[in-house]
Amino acid sequence: MRLNLPFLALAALQAASAMALDPPAEVPNDPAEALQELEALGEAAYLEVTAELEEPASKRLRKRTGGSCTLSKLRVRREWGSLTSSQKTAYINAVKCLQSKSALTPSELAPGAKTRFDDFVATHINQTLHIHYTGNFHAWHRYYVWIYETALRTECGYTGAQPYWDWAKTAITGLANSPIFDGSATSFSGDGAFIPDKPNLELGGGLGLPPLVLPPGSGGGCVTSGPFVDMVVNLGPVSLDLPGGLVGVNPDGPLAWNPRCLKRDLTDAINQRFANATSVLKNIVLPSTAEVFNTMMEGVPGSGEMGVHGGGHYAMGGDPGRDVFVSPGDPVFYLHHAAVDRVWWLWQLLSPSTRMQGASSVAGTRTMMNMPPSDPTTIEDYVDLGFAGGVPTKIKDLLKTTGGPLCYVYL
Ligand SMILES: *[C@@H]1O[C@H](CO)[C@@H](O)[C@H](O)[C@H]1NC(C)=O
Ligand SMILES: *[C@@H]1O[C@H](CO)[C@@H](O)[C@H](O)[C@H]1NC(C)=O
Ligand SMILES: [Cu+2]
């Protein structure tokens, strides 16, 4: 057995280096050119990862190391606009199915968690201060979206993969014209009802930092059409950013029941400024360490930047979209976080030996912005999704999307 170990290590290294993706030579400032580069990179990544799954040599390696992701099990996550109408309807129906099933979370723990969909929201609220601006941010949300996608499949008969929101595309088309937010039967419902004369958003001023000022969007009220027009948001708000620097909080507590409509405030200016094709490509190509990658993705409060992650959240806006605790209460959250995960996946593929394995693949501590101060995250730390589902899983088993419990790629 001992004799085999160096061979295994060598084979793993060879597999890792054979898989490295080439970055584009430059990051164009022109949105259309940057989008082209991004799509070329995405296609190359898809081809490399699926080719690796086909190789008989790596099949042997997978057997020895216990991996079980095969081409036949692979879930191919696609951009929402590329799905057919019936694929879109199947996904939306599965989400509505989760929203119609009873919660597994005991009501003593979270009285506001009424449905299986809410189990995910309650878990996210409960752990928010330990999963954002922390070293586990990417691995936690990767597993979270995977378990949500799995629940849609195993509990609601969905047979497809988790779709994603390509912000680079909506930055060009406008949100309200996009297949995600056009308000049609195959969208996630569209904008909220228009509320006039909204002041700007002012974010982060509470920390004593210069606030980030963002323009108001084109909605603000309850969504007016589409599949989620009658959806009931049960949990929150916990820390909802509202126009004029106000923050919405449910005084009954973070997990109390507070039934209300789904609101949106689509804001193209935020999408275009923070999550255009150039910003996405820069986040993939420029960072050489996990620390820089995380900082670019989430932004630094007070710096005037919120990253593509913040850009997507604040561009959809509304309630619970602009609440860091309750944001998974808007079904578009999962398309947004699949897109965040796709950026991480592409960045990882540029250097799998340092970004998809080992200590250098994570950076940060176990508390939000290290407040209060905490120990560094390690790849031995567990991601535990509580009543949402799954088994507690180490970060090191979540670094590769075609290994450990995971089996998916993006196209
Ligand atoms: C919140 O987290 C604590 C500590 O991990 C856990 O015991 C509790 O069950 C969680 N509550 C919910 C609603 O998930
Ligand atoms: C697009 O993103 C880049 C990088 O984040 C940013 O510098 C630029 O201002 C953005 N473009 C627009 C039109 O806001
Ligand atoms: Cu989150």
Name the features.
411 residues, 39% helix, binds 2-acetamido-2-deoxy-beta-D-glucopyranose, disordered N terminus, globular
Tell me about this structure.
With 411 residues, the chain is mainly alpha-helical. It has a single domain (10-22, 35-410), classed as Orthogonal Bundle (di-copper center containing domain from catechol oxidase), CATH 1.10.1280.10. The protein has helices at residues 4-19, 31-54, 56-65, 85-98, 116-127, 137-156, 167-173, 268-274, 277-285, 290-298, 307-316, 333-349, 352-355; strands spanning 75-77, 192-194, 201-203, 212-214, 220-223, 233-235, 240-242, 246-248, 257-260, 382-383, 393-394, 408-410. The strands form six sheets. Strands 1-12 form a two-stranded parallel sheet. It has a two-stranded antiparallel sheet with strand order 2-5. The chain has a two-stranded antiparallel ribbon with strand order 3-4. A hairpin with a 3-residue loop joins strand 7 (240-242) and strand 8. It is globular, with a radius of gyration of 21 Å. It binds 2-acetamido-2-deoxy-beta-D-glucopyranose (NAG) (2 copies) and copper (II) ion (CU). One 2-acetamido-2-deoxy-beta-D-glucopyranose is lined by residues 272-273, 276, 278-279, 282. The site of copper (II) ion has 4 residues, from loops. Residues 1-20 form the signal peptide. This is Tyrosinase copper-binding domain-containing protein. Keywords: Metal-binding, Signal.
